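Lab meeting notes turned into a lecture example. A postdoc, R.K., suggested we walk through two folding results consecutively so the class can see how the record format repeats. The first protein's sequence and structure tokens come next.
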Amino acid sequence: MLFRLYASFPLEISPRLCYNAEILNKVKKGAYSLNFIDKVKERAKRGAKTIALPETGDLRTLAAAERASAEGLARIILIGSEDEIRSRAAGLKLSGVTFVDPSKYERFESLAEKLYDLRKSKGMTPDEARCLLAGDWLYLGVMLVKEGVADGMVAGAVNATANVLRPSLQILKTAPGTKLVSAFFAIDVPDCEYGENGTFLFADSGLVQNPTAEELAHIAVSSAKSFRSLVQAEPVVAMLSHSTKGSARHPDVDKVVQATAIAKTLAPDLTLDGELQLDAAIVPSVGVAKAPGSPAAGRANVLIFPDLDSGNIGYKLAQRLAKADAFGPITQGIAKPVNDLSRGASADDIVGVIAITAVQARG
């Protein structure tokens, strides 16, 4: 399998990822390293988790299930009729997956009862709980996660973000100590000298439309934790703006300045600064010129955008113009990992998000 190689890593590398002995020897000597998603996949393989995929009417999802199972990234649960899924997936090898058919699943009634208990205060009846699990497999997938049958869920290839996250927030709720759920993209830019060898985290690029200063601060702190967990490197956080250190005056700038102050109070040991323009955040020479003395300027790897418009535009610019790999939107702040997909996601994209979800489930 071919993959992009970058300088200055690696730790534990699986020989099966290297396509010839010369490359393997160079990897062992530290001359090359795996890119972000290959490193995530290696970690996912070390303790395979179980990931539920409810969108089994989608061929990309079924192809991703085949690949993730074959690569040992996760144990896969496909929700739906096994006969119908196998017929739809003709030519795909699904021998390693588990099927959960709502019409035959032995734990269905138990899950329905538990969903009713969770939602009866909101007016749900037992019959409504059964109908919801039988008819909306996003809810069934989340209940599998809630009850520990699965460790996480990936969906969104054919469902809107709101539909994916609604059952997650109703059933799983937010993680302890988390104020809000947000989303990020893991961005891996080829041949890039900035960030963590070209790897960045962009937030919020998929969920929170126009965060307040306090919400922006919480997004920054959560994103730093996510970066440390997924990339296994120290986060350097930049609170982005069209202004650097007072170069412009506007209420939008004020919000970022306030968010920076709140974030520093929430996480005083975190390397974080703002407000910073993008070039001041990631380019060392510009950071020194525009923000001398800043602990984050010129070396940021976690980029916090002031609103969803800028975050979404930013990640798509990196993806399309810099030919970056973009994985997400990955949610953070839910009690157990449930991740949304872009409806334009390829099977390879879904495989990557399955691997990320498995690593998130490891904690």
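The second example is placed directly after the first for contrast:
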Amino acid sequence: MIELNNISKWYAVGGNRNYVLRDVKFSVREGEFVSIMGPSGSGKSTLLHILGLIDEPSEGYHYFMGEAVHLLKEKQRSNLAKANIGFVFQAYHLIDELNVYENIETPLIYHNVKGSERKAMVADMLDRFQIVGKKDLFPSQLSGGQQQLVGIARSLIASPRLLLADEPTGNLNSRQGEEIMELFRKLNSQDGVTIIQVTHSEKNATYGKRVIHLLDGKIEKETQE
């Protein structure tokens, strides 16, 4: 599904190259659950943004779903991401002015899904995540765990092939965090969703079948769980 060959990301600082990622090379098969770990500043979020087609590498070759991403124009990259990738963020990124139902529905509007279909798909998600009773509430009226559930429902509504999660339990207490990680495990094992998560948590990393350890922008080692 994903192949990264010698991916580097750098910024020019005073005529010098400041590397955030250097010669990163790995692949991810469809249906895998991969964790990326590393200290702050190791390049984890930059790598996730490249995987999500939000950012471009400075050098290297990136293949996703059989497409040579490094050769695509910005609009083509955006369309490829929209059709195949869902994001879950630490900070939820829900739209404050929209209620739960409307937040979950938003991606379908961007995908030009008809109103009647949207209604059925959102109803299915609300039921699946057991948040039917919260559908008319706004993000400020929800707990952190409930907001993250809504964020995950929203990211899955368009049936992405790949789910990218950036510190998905970072703002949650341990019980809520465990519930979210168990949900990811289920999405991966039962629904076959490919998941790549960035995490500081050793415990959360073990939910992945493979852990990639980053240090100073390079892959330090890979371990199998």
